[in-house]
Amino acid sequence: MVTIHDLIKHYSADLSSTTRNPLAYLIKLIGYRISVWNAVTFAKTIIVPANYWKKEISRKFNINSVKISVTYEGVFLKGSPFKAEGGPLLTPYLMYVGNLYPHKNIPILIEAVERLKIHLKIACARNVFENRLPKSEYTQYLGMVSDDELATLYKNALCFVFPSKIEGFGLTGLEAMSQCCPVIAANASCLPEIYGDAALYFDPNNVNDLVSKIQSVLSDKNLMKSLVTKGKLQVKKYSWATMANQTWEIYQNVLR
Residue 56: which region, alpha, beta or left (left: phi > 0; alpha: psi -120 to 50)? Predict the structure, then answer.
């Protein structure tokens, strides 16, 4: 039995996605792909976090989808947010949380905030790709933040924008929803499956579409309120306890 969280390194694997020596990276990439092929080929059961990846694995490796089980992940942000009454959080800003690998598609978000002349805060624990991104006076890199700080950033943001072209599940968008932050997400990979109608979607290859969607959320209070309401309901669909129970049941069935 094996759990495959995503196949990102099958779709975003050129040298722009690494800081390693090219030869060392190539060796590591080949080893990874051999390991994944062995795992999905010989495992009795494969667990994935979304139906999107169930279909992708079945298609890519020509595997019967019957042996692939989906266990959705949960949402767990243990933070105590506060409403800003002063300081830099009062400056209107958009929010992004996550790493800066090329598949995250951050340049399109930076271009969008440049056009809109609105601030963007990026929380990222590992920012080795920061220097490869376009420079912008509107973008602030926060580095690693605590759970309390993260919850507060979500709570006070105008909206959370997730431009990623490939995701295993999309936890940060659900975190934003849990803190009553409206979400704008790329219409890509598993994101529409996980977020449902609780997010506003845009073409991840079209900056004009992203700018338009941001403008729509910021100018339409009813749309913003609707996204917040739907987001709070969407988050309730996901539970780590449910995922753990489903995983345990799958293990028991295989062992029997």
Answer: alpha
Same domain, 148 and 97: yes
Residues 113 and 138 in one domain: yes
Q: What is the pTM of this model?
A: 0.92
Residues 205 and 183 in one domain: yes
Supply the DSSP symbol for 3: E
Helix (H/G/I), strand (E/B), else coil: 220: coil
Q: b vs e for 222-233, b when ≥16 Cβ sit within 10 Å of the residue's Cβ?
A: eebebbbebbee
Query: Does 81 map to a domain?
Result: no
Is the residue at 62 inside a domain?
yes
Question: How far is it, in rounded angstroms, from Cα 29 to Cα 39?
Answer: 15
Distance CA 245, CA 248 (A): 5
User: Are 96 and 203 found together in one domain?
Assistant: yes
The three-state DSSP-derived secondary structure of 106-158 is HHHHHHHHHHHCCEEEEECCCCCCHHHCCCCCCEEEEECCCHHHHHHHHHHCC
Could you tell me the two tokens for 161? Answer: 């924008």
198-249 pLDDT per residue, tens: 999 999 999 999 999 999 999 999 999 999 999 999 999 999 999 999 999 9
Q: Are 110 and 133 in contact (CB under 8 A)?
A: yes
One domain, residues 229 and 250:
no
Nearest by Cα to 215 from 174, 184, 187: 184
Instruction: Enter the tokens of residue 194.
Output: 């996980």
Q: Which domain holds residue 229?
A: 88-235
